[in-house]
Amino acid sequence: MEASAPAKVILFGEHAVVYGEPAIAVAINLRTYVRIKKSDEYRINGYPMRNKYHSYIKNAIELCWDGEPLDIQTKSEVPSASGMGSSASITVAILTAILGMRDEIDEERIAKLGFEVEYRTQGSASPIDTSTVTHGKGILVHKEKRGNFLWKVERGGLRWYIHHIEVPSLKLVVGFSGIRGSTKDMVDKVRRFYNWNSFARDVIRDIGKVTMEAVKALEDEDYARIGELMNEDNKLLTILGVNHPMLKRMINAALKHSYGAKLTGAGGGGSIVALTDEQDEVAKAIEEVGGKAYKVEISKDGFKIENHF
Ligand code: PMV
To answer: How far apart are CA 152 and CA 143, in angstroms?
Structure first.
């Protein structure tokens, strides 16, 4: 059985989503492919499965497979630890292949199992990554149920309502700093700021407001406004302390040819995302300051049964 899942970028609301504010993410056209077949021992890309290197795959198997050992092959276009959701992408691809083998494919089930795998492996997670790479297209996470509701995820007293959101075709460039930021360290850093400073709590709420304005701008296909709001979100994230000199360099380089640009994901390293009509120029500008550029577009496809290998 072969399956795949896309990568994602968070367009608005990272960090604030941890405190119940809304967030918007889109699936992008970089994918992870997997092939699984029954075997006499667990192997991944020809090597025995090891907890240390294959924790997402192992947790996915533990959650939904108790048959014979599996031989798993993976191919990924998604750079790891870049903020593009490589772990969610491999997790959802594996879950799709396993459920596909049992003829039990179900979008909500895959998204919820995906969240469970990330949660178990990382110790904490919001469902934004796994829901986005399962569904494809665009996702709005909100603390209340709205139109285009897909499913609800609850954990540790928190509740996230996941919605489909219509997004126009967006030409994006992701700039990877090559610095592998730790999501957990960044989330902890913002939490400390949030707990002792009411100003930080205001900033988190302002990010939520920017995100809801972005919902409208996306509906209106108002690229200039979407870009402005990305810049605004980036300022607020910088105040929260999750920016990084390399991200700032890439953002400044990208802005010359973009509607807007911001860090995406946890920050402290990782990636930026720029919205542009001139992907080649932006990619070149990012590479000139030392980043690795990926010209990407929105992927309509989330999880998928494939015939790739
Ligand atoms: O590092 P990423 O791309 O998985 O994004 C993390 C987003 C946060 O809002 C910082 C944390 C979360 O779990 O939502």
So the answer is: 10
Q: If you count them, how many residues does the chain have?
A: 309
CATH dotted code for 171-297: 3.30.70.890
Q: Into which CATH architecture does domain 2-167 fall?
A: 2-Layer Sandwich (3.30)
| Bridge partners for 37 per DSSP | 71
Q: In the chain, what's the furthest Cα-to-Cα distance?
A: 58
The residue extents of the domains of the chain are 2-167, 171-297
The residue type of 305 is I
Contact 88, 118 (CB under 8 A): yes
Q: What is the pTM of this model?
A: 0.95
Ligand 1: which atom is nearest the Cα of residue 13? Answer: 9
Q: How far apart are CA 129 and CA 134, in angstroms?
A: 9
Model confidence over 140-185: pLDDT tens digits?
999 999 999 999 999 988 899 999 999 999 999 999 999 987 888 8
CA 36 and chain centroid, separation: 24
Q: What share of the chain is helix, strand, coil (3-state, %, to 5)?
A: 40, 30, 30
In percent, the amount of the chain with pLDDT more than 70 equals 100
Query: Are the CB atoms for 236 and 173 separated by under 8 Å?
Result: no
Other CB atoms within 10 Å distance of the CB of residue 305: 13
C-alpha of residue 42 to centroid of ligand 1, in Å: 30
Q: CB under 6 Å to ligand 1: residues?
A: 10, 14-15, 17-18, 83, 85, 125-126, 128-129, 183, 187, 265-266
Q: Which region holds residue 124: left if phi is over 0, alpha if psi is between -120 and 50, else beta?
A: beta
